[in-house]
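Title: Prediction job returns without error message
Component: structure pipeline
Severity: low
Priority: P3
Assignee: unassigned

Description:
Job completed but the reporter wants confirmation the result is attached to the right record. Sequence as submitted:
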Amino acid sequence: MAEGFSDHFSATAADYRRYRPRYPDSLFDTVCGGLARREVAWDCASGSGQAVAGLAARFRTVIASDASAAQLARLPPAAGVHRLVARAAQAPLATASVDLLSVAQALHWFAGEAFYAEARRVVRPGGRIAAWTYGLCRVTAAVDALIDTFYRDIVGPWWPPERRWVEAAYAGLPWPFAATRRYSDRMVTTWTPAHLLAYLGTWSAVAACRRAGGGDPVADIAPALRAAWGGHGRREVRWPLTILVAANA
């Protein structure tokens, strides 16, 4: 693990890989569309690799980096995918060696001039820098009300301050690249209530609450969520996606 970074997810790395949603092909089509060269993609703060499969289908080589070795250990082996334990602003990558730099649901943890200077260095001129984030999931009005209360009132005190950027869909987040395009998309899947509860358990605020001796808030909400769900069957679950894409001048 890289020294000196705030590690919110290593302790739940296995669950993060298993229970987090997958990104749609439309997102990767947006990020990669029109890119002249697709040799190397750098997926910075890759975690357990939610974005890696989509990138590996479009690039010869994908470098999946993260400050957490525990997270990267959960990344499934795949041809052309290389793991790299490194902090976002200190990547041991050659200058102008990357065609696309992607940051999936992580830019808010380290956005700042040190990282952006590294991005400008590593991405080739004319290459692309992309970042995306997703907000709260939506299911039905009854389930949504419970999730909103859980997010705001139950685990709200344990959210790190950087979470405010996710709530704002990255509006106002430091992003110094000119000619940036901002896109909207969504993730859609079908889950059981058990899967949704497990997903809630991967939230950094839930982990912080548990560590602080606040009990298990997911277990506490489970009966009400199952009742609002209306059984144990599968329902559609949706997340709004915000995507930022810029060329490296």
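Comment from assignee: result matches the submitted record. Residues 1-5 have pLDDT under 50 and may be disordered.
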